[in-house]
Amino acid sequence: MGKPTPIEYADASPEVRAVFDDIMTSRNLKDVNNFWKYLARDPVSLRRTWESVKEVMAPGALDPLVKEMVYLAVSVTNSCGYCIASHSAAAKAGMSEAMFGELMAVVGMANETNRLVNGYRVPIDAAFDR
Amino acid sequence: MGKPTPIEYADASPEVRAVFDDIMTSRNLKDVNNFWKYLARDPVSLRRTWESVKEVMAPGALDPLVKEMVYLAVSVTNSCGYCIASHSAAAKAGMSEAMFGELMAVVGMANETNRLVNGYRVPIDAAFDR
Amino acid sequence: MGKPTPIEYADASPEVRAVFDDIMTSRNLKDVNNFWKYLARDPVSLRRTWESVKEVMAPGALDPLVKEMVYLAVSVTNSCGYCIASHSAAAKAGMSEAMFGELMAVVGMANETNRLVNGYRVPIDAAFDR
Amino acid sequence: MGKPTPIEYADASPEVRAVFDDIMTSRNLKDVNNFWKYLARDPVSLRRTWESVKEVMAPGALDPLVKEMVYLAVSVTNSCGYCIASHSAAAKAGMSEAMFGELMAVVGMANETNRLVNGYRVPIDAAFDR
Amino acid sequence: MGKPTPIEYADASPEVRAVFDDIMTSRNLKDVNNFWKYLARDPVSLRRTWESVKEVMAPGALDPLVKEMVYLAVSVTNSCGYCIASHSAAAKAGMSEAMFGELMAVVGMANETNRLVNGYRVPIDAAFDR
Amino acid sequence: MGKPTPIEYADASPEVRAVFDDIMTSRNLKDVNNFWKYLARDPVSLRRTWESVKEVMAPGALDPLVKEMVYLAVSVTNSCGYCIASHSAAAKAGMSEAMFGELMAVVGMANETNRLVNGYRVPIDAAFDR
């Protein structure tokens, strides 16, 4: 197969359109993001991924904005440019510049201290292992 | 040099003791964690890292518990066993089992979708890049 | 040194040309990919890397297409854009869109469950450790 | 919350037992692995993860053994000790030592060349981007 | 918040300008790199990060060029394109093409053998653990 | 296949013994490390990996100690416990505790700033891209 290409709504099968419709309704959008248009190449993955995302990112014991920040922290750690861009946008309404700055500071710090722990081969304190 | 070993308070230099004292006072602890005892091998790194951690993890635009959860999310993504254990403990007071479960679900989901984005080579939507 | 630049066949030393010739013959190509043109900056690495790739990716106990899919799975996990593009192309002849979709689904799932294991600190079952 | 602990079948809720039963039936096992016992702390994640794993790892356009090898390749890249142990066991029946050796050789090679590409800043060949 | 944008010297607060001035003086530059202009969005992180970088990258027990090479090795392992570009430039004066080639060879090799160790589940030799 | 197990010299084939002999001679050792004993399960990988390691880690444009430190920096970034232990030991003779402390500080800093670059989406300065 060649380079993956997106599937637009107009060209989508009924199965794919049903997922696109649910995304647009749930998130109050006029079109779905590129992520969903590319994933539509595999309608089974599209459906499963959307259902999981909808369930996982919904309000629950954690606030949706906290979830977006956690998602962003992972994407920054993994160097996923698209994911950083799309979830920065998703967090736009609720995240101030000061919140973003502190979020990045924690992510940077965690990536630094994780490696200090590795290098110094720090054993787990007995108190943490109970 | 051989395998790194920890420095206990009793054996620490005045410079290291000053940092240990500040950690114990700030966090209301009777002893510092292994992380600080190992890092004490390099007193300059010990001081700089503690001062940065204290500043970054303090309450600000983000709640300290949110910061602990973000720290945990990064550590889980990086497979840092010590960091997961110590920051799970740090978050103990404020994080219910339901919150932990949702946190892990978001971390897992982000690691999954980050890779779907890579594999399908999804370009950034124009709307995200403004 | 400045930004690395590629070495074209016309400008290559006899040592580099010998490797380029072997790549083109082995893979039935009219030109080598950018990867080899950049690596040609270090002729020793060029030779060693090509000899290793040729040996590792050859048919053996595993089918070459399976090897290409494993290579792609690692590259997607590591966010290596060039590697994803070049090995998607390499797998072009033998990999249908359905195979690609399932491959990405497994890669995404593995990256997700790897992190759930980390976060829940799951110990290895005795049965797996024999 | 403290260190996560497993939920055994005898102590599980009906909701968790239903998933455990399905895992044991589908895979012809007398007990579920630790992964599922720990994830049972969050019954919603347990159900969603099992349903996804069952769908993703089933025979389809790719052979289940190929899927196990891809899963293992990702886990080795991510340094997930539990995942390597459990999926080596899962692949036990179908994977010879020679297949395992070649699999590791491809995984090692991909992790090496991914970094050579990064360091030499190799641009994507026009032919790969169509 | 939207996409991060840089802060130029002319638009910077006195607090940010003081850091920019120190960077330009310390490194004998007429302008600061994009990294600092973006980080200036969070003046607290800007100051802390610059002070840490200045301390960590200064001559000490290790030569500054060795430090630049180690920084580059980490950035190549993490797929950080900006970091690779800026630290290749930083190492420009002191690193020959032969040194760069050997550096990349070691980085590639380490990323390969790290995964062979994971996959074969190699236990630590008693001699290394003392 | 089950859990990988090591091959001791006494049980090794002539092909494997030849590699073991060369390792012991080259490095002046009485026995080879576990890494080689496990990799001996695949004699072709054993030979190729040893020949590559011998070539890559030899003195050249970079000093062998610098190469060991770079190798360690990558292993710390990748959380490879065995690799950290064995290459700390390899660097033992030439690396003081102060050098180790600075090495870890650079590795930690690079892992931190790599993520700040990702999160702030810093574009490459024109000067770095020439």
UniProtKB/TrEMBL annotation, chains A, B, C, D, E, F:
Domain Carboxymuconolactone decarboxylase-like: 53-121
InterPro entries given in the database record: AhpD-like, AhpD_core, CMD-like
Pfam family membership, one: CMD
Entry keywords, A to Z: Oxidoreductase, Peroxidase
A GO term for molecular function: peroxiredoxin activity
Name of this chain's protein: Alkylhydroperoxidase
Organism annotation: Bosea vaviloviae
